[in-house]
Amino acid sequence: MSRIAGRFGRVEPRATARAYLLGLLSSVERKNCWQLAEQAGHTRPGPMQRLLRYARWDADAVRDDLRAYAAEHLGADGGVLVVDETGFLKKGRSSAGVQRQYTGTAGRIENTQVGVFLALVTSRGRAWIDRRLYLPEHSWANDPERRTAAGIPETVQFATKPRLAAEMITAALDAGITASWVTGDEAYGQDLQLRAALEARGTGYVMAAACSMRVRINHGRTLVRADTVVGRLPTTAWQQHSAGNGAKGPRYYDWAWIQTGTDDHRHLLIRRNPSTGELAFYLCWSPTEVPLSELVRVAGVRWSVEECFRAAKGQVGLDHYQVRNWTAWHRHITLAMLALTALAADAAPQQSADTHQPARSRDPITLTVPEIRRLLAAVFNPPAVPAARLLHWSNWRRRHQATARRSHYRRRTRWIVHETVLEY
User: What is the pLDDT of residues 251-266, one digit of tens each?
Assistant: First the structure.
């Protein structure tokens, strides 16, 4: 809080932001404004709601502080920037950017908002350092009425997800984030402009690619599908390497690489599961020649983003918000990222260890994000809540729900009457 306090011009939103962050770190079941206000000892959710919607503070400036904090505490050689997206399932059509679209969160097309995120991963830990809310072109970017209702600034225009990723990567590198590599899934690996922008900056990448991606082999003379290359590789081309530790130890795969283009800086990396034979492909470029083991390391970093999303949603309520406004979305997401980054920084080891060797010491493992959250909740947990306060919030919630129900019934009744009149 001392780092971001200057971003709040008044003491009231500053104190509310502190209470909001502590609420995100607490054991509250659902981390929305109602329950966070109750946890903080407020008599109504108004201050929390004003913090997200109307209070004067700049979420992007807090994001900059968060990014600097992450670099300061997690910075190490060999850093990797990981870009990925996640969906936020919603009902209705009023939440900024919501529409029926595919989301990996549900594994199918759902009514959802999609956020594009950028993470910093080093040997000392991992944390989200930037975010963008994807604004669909036809249903939102070109609809002035919906934009105004959702509070979307006029300066925000349509941008593809790879374009949003490129903006975040550029901002992070310009801000001094030390990262030699970028990685992402197929949605970003297939974007030629994103790959070209990284090459122009001299930043290496290991991007997932579809099996149908066409690459040039034989010093650029032959254009073939990526999966066709596999059948031409001799047995000696495959090497076994660990892609990093998983829940059950090192994750070993068979790996092969083949030069693409006309120089030694561009490769097609192929991963094969030794048990199932499943294949995965990566387009790679590096400003200097690197060994196969380095490309494998970067490719293996991508799994950590899923862990980041699980921690952000499960530990600090990244997806627990109940806001529809563009500004409110970015403010909640930023505060949730800040809470998670603070935990990740606390959990960061002072020096990196060999991740491929089992621990021999009887000392406990390094503090995890859930364990640090439990300790913080124990330290900052307010005294036992009086019965009067419990009853107050119970009455408040039920009154609010009754009002919402009456409004819903009135709208439904008006709609039925309107349809009946049209039939006659």
Answer: 899 999 999 988 889 9
Name 249's bridge partners. 246
With contact defined as beta carbons under 8 Å apart, do 185 and 208 qualify?
A: yes
Segment 143-163 mean pLDDT: 96
- Do 70 and 26 touch, CB atoms closer than 8 A? no
Q: Determine how many CB atoms are found less than 10 A away from the CB of residue 368.
A: 13
Are the beta carbons of 88 and 112 closer than 8 angstroms? yes
Single pTM value for the model: 0.86
In whole angstroms, give the CA distance from residue 122 to residue 372: 20
DSSP, collapsed to helix, strand or coil, labels residue 213 as coil
Cα 299 from Cα 284, distance rounded (Å): 9
Integer CA distances (angstroms), 167 to 4, 130, 134, 192, 341, in order = 23, 10, 13, 15, 21
Beta bridge partners of 257: 269
Question: Which residues lie below 8 Å from residue 27, measured CB to CB, with a gap of 6+?
Answer: 374, 377
Here the tokens at position 416 are 């039925």
